[in-house]
Amino acid sequence: MFAAMAPAVNNPLAGFCRDCLARQPGISARRCEACGSPRLARHAELYRLSLAHIDCDAFYAAVEKRDRPELRDKPVIIGGGKRGVVSTACYIARINGVRSAMPMFKALAACPEAVVIKPDMEKYARVGRQVREMMQALTPLVEPISIDEAFLDLAGTEKLHGMPPALVLARFARNLEKEVGISASVGLSYCKFLAKIASDMQKPRGFAVIGEEEAVSFLADKPVTLIWGVGKAFDEVLERDGIRTVGQLQKMERGDLMKRYGTMGERLYHLSRGMDERRVHADHEAKSVSAETTFDTDLASPEDLVPVLRALSEKVSSRLKKAGIAGRTVVLKLKTSDFKIRTRNRQLADPTRLADRIFSTGLELLRKETDGTRYRLIGIGVGDLSDAARADPPDLVDLQSRKRALAEGAIDNLRDKFGRSAVETGYTFGKGRNARPQRDGDS
Ligand SMILES: [Mg+2]
C-alpha cells in the first residue's frame, strides 16, 4: 500500500509532538500543529519499534541544578576537590571543554567560572530509584545499566497504555521533567545495541530512532569503536588489520572474522549488520508476576478455594499477556489462619502466560494442601520470567491443550472488548459469594 493512501493516524511519518504528544496529521510540517513546538518525532518505523534505552542527561549535575535553581545557567561540575576528577559536567561546562573523568585542575583551567559541587551519592540514589519506579510503571521489562540508565522492552504494552511504545516513551521523558525536574534522552530501536547508540545521538533531551530498514547503512560509515566491546586495545588490533569502519566489517565473511578474532569476530559479524539478539532482562525485584486474595472468613475446602485460584490465575495471565512476557515457574502461596505462609512451586517445561496452564499447575499444588487446614489467603504467581516469544509452544501430543489455548485467546479478545465480567469460566461463574475477596494484593 502507498504511504500517502494510509489514514494519517496510521502513517508513521505523521509522527507526534514530543512536548504536547499531539499526533501530527501532516507529514512535512516543521512545527507541532497543536502547540507550535519544533520537537517532532517522525520515523517510518516509529510505531513498530519497542526496545528503548533511556539515559538521564548529566544526571548528578541535573539533580544539583534542580535543587539549586540559581545554578541553572551556570557551568556546574560534580567532582571531588581540586585533586579529584570530574564525575559529571553539566552541558554548559561541556561546551567549555569539560569532560567526565577529566582531572579537576584541567577542568577548571578550561572553565574557570565553573561551580564545583561534591557528589551527594545518597541523594542521587534516591532520585535514581524514583526514575526506576517510573520506568517500571511502563513495563516489567526494565534492565538497569547504572543509576541513571536502563533498557526497556515495551513489546506488547500498547493495549495497557492505549498508545504505542514511542508515545509512551515521549510521555515518560515529559513526565520526568515535570515530576522529577531532570531530563533524559531516549533511544528507540529493535535491539539493545542500536537503542543504546540512539539514546546518545541527540543528547540532551534527545529522542532518536534507528529502524531495521536503515540499520546497516546507518552503521556503515561509523568507526569500529561504536561496537560494543571494541575498546582501545581491540581498536588497535583492528587498525593494524586496516579495519576502521563498521562498513568494512559488513563486507567480511563470518568465517574470516571468527578465524581472525575468535568469539569477538562473531560479535563483530553480527553487530556490524545490526543483528543483536540480547533480550532485556528485568531487575531481580520484578522477577515475578502474581496476584493474591485475603478472605473475609478463613476457607478450607477445595470447593471454596478453587474458584478463587482460577480467578487469580486469569488475573496473572492477563498481566503477563499485556506485558508480553511469560514465566516458567508457577508459585502457589497460602497463608494459614494462624498466619503461617506456605509457598509451593513447580517448574514447567516451557514458559507460559496462559491462565489455563497457570491454573492447572496451581491446582495440582493446591490439592496437596487442602487437608483441612484453614486458609486466610491464597495467591498464585509465575516467576522465571522471559519474553513471550518462546511461551506455550503448540503441544502436538496434547491437542486438547492447543484447543484450550485458542479458546483462551478468544476469551481474552471478548474481555478486551466487553470487560472482564463478560466472560466467566465454569470455575468462577456464580462462585463470587463464597469467596468474596476482602482485599486484593499484588507482590
Ligand atoms: Mg546518563
From TrEMBL:
Entry's localization field: Cytoplasm
EC number(s) from the headed UniProt entry? 2.7.7.7
Which reaction is recorded as catalysed by this protein?
Answer: DNA(n) + a 2'-deoxyribonucleoside 5'-triphosphate = DNA(n+1) + diphosphate
> Superkingdom of this entry's organism?
Bacteria
Checking Gene3D superfamilies in the record gives:
3.30.70.270, 3.40.1170.60, 5' to 3' exonuclease, C-terminal subdomain, DNA polymerase, Y-family, little finger domain
Cofactor, how bound (note): Binds 2 magnesium ions per subunit.
Q: State any GO BP term from the record.
A: SOS response
Question: Which intervals hold domain UmuC?
Answer: 51-231
A Pfam family per the record: IMS
* MF terms in GO: damaged DNA binding; DNA-directed DNA polymerase activity; magnesium ion binding
Write out the residues that bind Mg(2+): D55, D148
* Statement: the UniProt record of this protein carries the keyword Chloroplast: no
Q: Which cofactor does it need?
A: Mg(2+)
Alphabetized UniProt keyword annotations:
Cytoplasm, DNA damage, DNA repair, DNA replication, DNA-binding, DNA-directed DNA polymerase, Magnesium, Metal-binding, Mutator protein, Nucleotidyltransferase, Transferase
- At what residues does the UniProt record annotate the site feature described as Substrate discrimination? Y60
Catalytic-site annotation from UniProt:
E149
What does it do?
Poorly processive, error-prone DNA polymerase involved in untargeted mutagenesis. Copies undamaged DNA at stalled replication forks, which arise in vivo from mismatched or misaligned primer ends. These misaligned primers can be extended by PolIV. Exhibits no 3'-5' exonuclease (proofreading) activity. May be involved in translesional synthesis, in conjunction with the beta clamp from PolIII.
Family designation: Belongs to the DNA polymerase type-Y family.
Which PANTHER family does the annotation name? DNA POLYMERASE KAPPA (PTHR11076:SF33), DNA REPAIR POLYMERASE UMUC / TRANSFERASE FAMILY MEMBER (PTHR11076)
Q: How does it assemble?
A: Monomer.
The protein depicted here goes by the name DNA polymerase IV
